[in-house]
Amino acid sequence: MREVFQQSLRDVQDRLVLIAELVEQAITEATTAFGSSDVAIAEKVIDRVDEIEILAAELDQLTIDILARQQPVASDLRLMVGSLRMSASLERMADLAQHIAQLARYRYPESAIPAGLTKTFARMGALDVEMARKIVDLLRTQEPRIIAEVRDLDDDLDELHAKVFEKVLSDNLAETPANVVDSTLASRYHERFGDHAVGIARQIQYFISGSLD
């Protein structure tokens, strides 16, 4: 019976890793579509989110079944509870990648990025992609070092998010109201993506140490 339980725990971890890999792919393609106004790539991201939502729902059901049948304690219980929260964060990250791709599709063939913010959004996208990669590694290895790395990347992302708002509120960005709205939304989507990555890192920390601090 214990071996069956351990296999179930491994199944939960494997499913989390798979979903995280799909999220990494989604944000990578979304930032590419946003930066290059590539509507074909944007459509791929938008379509992929349905698959991630299905996998997250299946993972949640598996986790609930394990909780009901096995009644885990200590670190196993933390993993089960954390799994429900992490799957929700991963699903939300996929939604945010979809939102970024939708901005690219809405403005096609024009760019949704004002000329004065091209480099800033390229950097924000790169940070989100790097955070997504680290989340995959963290879910696979539970390496504590990665938790701090994710938080550091999020700090950089927050600084860029603040700079975007400063830029769009200044008189120096001579863009249409639509571009200003797009920039504001895109920056918020990138920033929220990072917040959810940090949330997952905190759940892994809780699984490892029993503390969120």
Automatic annotation (TrEMBL):
Pfam family, one: PhoU
Location relative to the cell: Cytoplasm
Keyword Hydrolase: no
Domain PhoU: 19-103, 122-203
Keywords carried by this UniProt record: Cytoplasm, Phosphate transport, Transport
Signal peptide start and end residues: none
Role description: Plays a role in the regulation of phosphate uptake.
NCBIfam families attached to this UniProt entry: phoU_full
Family listed: Belongs to the PhoU family.
Subunit structure: Homodimer.
Protein name: Phosphate-specific transport system accessory protein PhoU
Annotated source species: Leucobacter manosquensis
